[in-house]
Write a structure and sequence with these properties.
The complex is a heterodimer of chains A (about 250) and B (about 300). Chain A has about 250 residues and is of the alpha/beta class. Helices cover about 30% and strands about 25% of the residues of chain A. The radius of gyration of chain A is 18 Å and the shape is globular. Chain B has one domain (about 5-10, about 40-305): ABC transporter involved in vitamin B12 uptake, BtuC (Orthogonal Bundle), CATH 1.10.3470.10. The interface of A and B includes residues 91, 101, 104 and 152 of A.
Chain lengths: ~250, ~300
């Protein structure tokens, strides 16, 4: 069974179709990048996948379960979502923030169990931010912050991980680190989908690619999808533009 | 993890209680302490706990550190309903009175929320503006009623100003009971409140239904505010200041913050009320005025800090 199956997904925005009859599947171990120009519906797609917004037509299934019929608690156990930016005015520590990933797993009237604490500590280790555990999230650099929210998503122990521009605002080293982390998570059997702003980053480990643009889409193996000709057409660039990845 | 700072908070509460029981021109005459200051201190504790709790609930559920029952219009809605009840001859001992005050508080809060939401994405500033608009209208309504109905206006005027004057023991017990139940129910959902403090979008993806939790937390905050208003009238800024102060001791997580906000609010208001009795003795300053004198500059400081944070 695919970890994520999307079929016939259609969504309109301001009267015009944004996503039309979109279908694809992700399996455990897949690492898919979602590419496309601004306004092509990349972020909207992720929110449709989690059921936060409702499609006009079509279906999204997580481990065989129809998303539109799921309660948020069940959904958070099946898929974890990392927003492009999460801000809070309150000084939660990194560990408290990661523990919040256990919201859907912990009994609702108790404190966190030992298992919740262990899951949080494992997530801190996997993302390499154990040393930040006691710091307030509001004192972190952009890159550290991104890792903290990825750790929160990992603590959910969901099999599908969705990330909205996890590398934006990061310096090159952090971009490379985050892509390496996501690739290794896919290697551990998660299905990962990440909206990326720069096609060149997709070369760092993505095996699938979904390219959106002008109500159309293309989905396939990353190697085929990320050809300069394909990307040039999607972004409206000349095929020899230096912004496109070389093959 | 932060250290447990509960003893510090309880010491502050004990100090505020002693101050409140001892303060006043009559010294320590047992009759005065027992029959006048004790009921009044208990009322201050209940009202302060209710407002502190409501402030912590609003600040978490709305992810907005500028919110409290006074600024969102909750208190104004409760006060307007209470004044209308008094005018209609419904007294504080009637369950109908509490129902009406809760309806006023809940209606005003959701009106502010809905107005702020009209602009699309909920912003801190839009919420404060909507609350100010709703409060101003309801306060004008109260003043209209007070101006029209002369006989009772004098005693109601003090109710609107916010002060802890002698009330029936039954009202004190009912209000304290409602606030205790609200605190207990809120504690059952502390983790959902923490999720909401990251925003509705994050709360949903962490497994919490934001629309449902919003109604739940608003209801609890409105019920606690209503019970506080029934006892002490419109007292502002306790709900705003208390969570900010106790967060320095407990950290932001609702598990420690909610009980600390209730204890801290109780201590703050008991101290403010006692200060109002002593500062210009023998004249007495209503607790609502003392809190506004301390709270309004605090609010200005929050705005200034917020502006600096964005710069």
């Amino acid at each position: 069974m695919p970890a994520l199956r999307v079929s016939g997904l259609t969504f309109s925005y301001n009267g015009g179709p944004l996503l039309q009859d979109l279908s694809f599947e992700l399996h455990p171990g897949d690492f898919m990048c979602v590419l496309g120009p601004n306004g092509s519906g990349k972020s909207t797609l992720l929110r449709l996948l989690t059921g936060y917004i409702k499609p006009a037509a079509g279906s999204v299934r997580l481990a065989g379960e129809e998303v539109s019929a799921l309660k948020p608690g069940r959904l958070a156990r099946l898929a974890a979502y990392v927003a492009s930016e999460t801000a809070t005015p309150y000084d939660f520590s990194v560990r408290e923030m990661v523990l919040l990933g256990r919201t859907a797993r912990a009994g609702f009237w108790r404190g966190y169990s030992a298992a919740d604490g262990a899951a949080a500590d494992l997530a801190l280790q996997e993302t390499g931010i154990v040393r930040l555990a006691g710091r307030s999230v509001n004192t972190l650099s952009t890159g550290e912050r991104q890792l903290a929210f990825i750790a929160q998503a990992l603590a959910q122990e969901a099999k599908v991980l969705l990330l909205d521009e996890p590398t934006s605002h990061l310096d090159l080293k952090y971009k490379s680190d985050v892509m390496g982390l996501l690739r290794s998570l896919a290697g551990k059997g998660l299905a990962v989908a990440a909206v990326l702003h720069e096609p060149a980053l997709a070369a760092l480990g993505c095996n699938k690619a979904l390219v959106l643009g002008a109500g159309r889409y293309a989905f396939g193996p990353a190697s085929a999808m990320l050809s300069p000709a394909n990307l040039a057409a999607a972004y409206g660039l000349p095929p020899d533009s230096p912004l496109l990845p070389k093959q | 993890m932060r250290k447990n700072r509960l003893p510090l908070l309880l010491a502050a509460l004990a100090a505020a209680c002693l101050f409140s029981l001892a303060a006043g021109p009559a010294g320590l005459a047992p009759d005065i302490v027992w029959h006048l200051r004790l009921p009044r201190t208990l009322a201050a504790l209940a009202v302060g706990a209710g407002l502190g709790l409501a402030g912590a609930l609003f600040q978490g559920a709305l992810k907005n550190p500028l919110s409290d029952p006074y600024i969102l219009g909750t208190s104004s809605g409760a006060t307007a309903a209470a004044v209308l009840c008094f005018m209609a001859g419904i007294e504080r001992t009637s369950p109908l009175f509490f129902a009406a005050v809760f309806a006023g508080a809940f209606g005003a809060t959701f009106l502010s929320y809905w107005l702020a939401r009209l602009a699309g994405r909920l912003s801190d500033a839009a919420l404060v503006l909507a609350g100010v608009a709703v409060s101003a209208f309801l306060s004008a309504l109260v003043m209209l009623v007070l101006s029209a109905g002369r006989e009772r206006s004098f005693s109601l005027f003090y109710f609107v100003l916010g002060g802890l004057y002698p009330s029936e023991p039954g009202v004190l017990a009912a209000s304290a009971g409602i606030i205790a139940v609200c605190a207990a129910l809120a504690m059952l959902r502390w983790r959902a409140l923490d999720a909401m403090a990251l925003g509705e979008d994050s709360a949903y993806h962490l497994g919490v239904d934001p629309a449902r939790e919003r109604v739940l937390f608003f209801s609890l905050a409105c019920a606690a505010t209503s019970a506080a208003v029934a006892l002490g009238g419109t007292i502002g800024f306790v709900g705003l200041m208390t969570p900010h102060i106790v967060r320095l001791l407990t950290g932001p997580s609702a598990r420690a913050l909610l009980p600390a906000a209730a204890v801290g609010g109780a201590a703050l208001l008991a101290a403010a009320d006692a200060a109002g009795r002593t500062l210009f003795s023998p004249a007495e300053i209503p607790a609502g005025v003392v809190m506004a004198l301390a709270g309004a500059p605090f609010f200005m400081w929050l705005l200034w800090r917020g502006a600096r944070g964005r710069a």
